[in-house]
Amino acid sequence: MAPLVEVRNLSKHFSIGGGWLRGEPGILKAVDDVSFYISEGETLGLVGESGCGKTTLGRTLLRLYEPTSGQAFFDGVPIFEQNRKQMLSLRRKMQIVFQDPYASLDPRMTVAEIIAEGISIHKLASSSKERMEIVHHLLDTVGLRPDASKRFAHEFSGGQRQRIVIARALAVEPSFIVCDEPISALDVSIQAQIVNMLEDLQHERGLTYLFIAHDLAMVKHISHRIAVMYMGKIVELADSRELYANPQHPYTKALLSAIPIPDPDIESQRERIMLEGDVPSPINPPPGCRFRTRCPNAMKVCGEEEPPTFESGNHMVACHLLT
Ligand code: SF4
């Protein structure tokens, strides 16, 4: 499969502080020199704790934030070099589903208006009748009845609202969707339904996903490959099965050990890796490995030099342990 999305050495830094009562000025390196690709029809899971930069990465890719440096390509087109008009047509192909379906839907608009907005902007229907037919078809696609179109978002449950958000994204016929923690705010019972629906849509429409989540359990079933992020860096990236069977980075191992196993016998016998130590400030981070203050395997070199990147087949790890 050819890469549909390619990211090269992408960084997004924020200048913070420096004013009266606002503390020392500093640079928050939310995303720092990150590279990866996503093939057409593939799901890349992106996992890390809250504040690790994964949401900033997804939004920078769609230019909801402007990058500090680096390049990104969509189907060979350099995303950061597009002017406003070119970006509008590129946005049609690259959509985002936000974490909070409560905040991302305008409470004053009916569901039909919400879904039809993109259809109108991109002139994807020749008449209002055709536009409504597309809206009803999309509602059916995401498992909602046609009469949902006349109602308002607040009349729906969290899972139903996320279905509306997905229908809105699909309305403009995208090929790539950034799913920014789309199930984190939902009940556990609903999460699997939404993941299954996203998988079905991927098969039917050949969609490509960047699926962002804060733990490895959430991305396990949907991801073909998984990238693990810590304080702005991708520390490990591998095929899903390989990552679960053969994790190399100490942070990935700790994340995996936190996933509960349904079998109580296995669960009681396995070793949990408890991460101790402080998380360093992401502002002006110190040299060396950013995970070293919590890493059970930290060595002297980890505080002195940035960990080198090792690649073996499809498995990438950034850690001094592999030196
Ligand atoms: Fe731990 Fe050192 Fe590897 Fe960082 S580079 S994860 S501190 S062993």
Q: How does this model look, in words?
A:
By secondary structure, the protein is of the alpha/beta class. It has one domain: 3-Layer(aba) Sandwich (Rossmann fold), CATH 3.40.50.300. 30% of the residues lie in helices and 24% in strands. It is built from ten helices and twelve strands. The chain has an eight-stranded mixed beta sheet with strand order 6-7-8-3-9-10-12-11, sandwiched between helices. Strands 2-1-4-5 form a four-stranded antiparallel beta sheet. Helix 4 crosses helix 5. The longest helix has 18 residues, at 188-205. It is globular and about 70 Å long. It binds iron/sulfur cluster. Iron/sulfur cluster (SF4) binds at residues 249-250, 289, 291-292, 295, 297-299, 302, 307, 319-321.
Question: What is the count of distinct domains?
Answer: 1
Structural class: alpha/beta
> Could you give me the name of the CATH homologous superfamily?
P-loop containing nucleotide triphosphate hydrolases
| Largest sheet geometry | 8 strands, mixed
- In CATH's first tier, which class applies? Alpha Beta
Low-confidence stretches: none
CATH topology description? Rossmann fold
Oligomer: single chain
User: What is the count of β-strands?
Assistant: 12
Q: What separation lies between the terminal Cα atoms?
A: 31 Å
Name given to the CATH architecture: 3-Layer(aba) Sandwich
Count of helical stretches:
10
| Bound compounds | iron/sulfur cluster
**Average pLDDT level:** 92
Task: Give the helix proportion (percent range).
Answer: 25-40%
Rounded to an integer in angstroms, the radius of gyration calculated over CA atoms is 21 Å
The run of helices and strands is EEEHEEHEHHHEHEHEEHHHEE
Strand numbers in spatial order across the main sheet? 6-7-8-3-9-10-12-11
Strand residue percentage: 15-25%
**Quick one: overall form?**
globular
